[in-house]
Amino acid sequence: MDFGLAGKTRPALVVSTVFGDQDRALITVVPHTTSLRGSPFEIAVRVPFLKPGAFLVQGVTSFPTVRALHRLGTLQPEPFEKVLDGLLRWLGHSRNE
Fold this sequence. Notes:
- It is a single chain.
- It contains one helix and seven strands.
- It has one domain (about 1-90): SH3 type barrels (Roll), CATH 2.30.30.
- The model has no long low-confidence stretch (mean pLDDT about 90).
- By secondary structure, the protein is α+β, with helices and mostly antiparallel strands.
- The protein is about 15% helix and about 25% strand.
- The protein is globular.
- The protein has one helix spanning about 75-90; strands spanning about 1-5, 10, 10-15, 25-35, 40-45, 55, 60-65.
- It starts with a strand and ends in a 7-residue tail after the last helix.
- Strands 3, 4, 5, 6 and 7 form a five-stranded antiparallel sheet that branches. A two-stranded antiparallel ribbon has the order 1-2.
């Protein structure tokens, strides 16, 4: 994903659904980082196609699809759910409410 940060690209997890013809061509993503700070909003999951790090749910954002460069892989359901749970916590929600 091209985050527009000094020409740097970084991996990101797409968390949005497929959009229709009348929707804006946007995707919502959670960036992956290797610069960890120990925050509870850094969700570490093992991903064979990424360097060790975490998904930073505080960095959730939406971009036009043209900023997505290419697919690196797919998360298995369990790690995806872990990131989604962290994202819900960041947004002030949980599945148990």
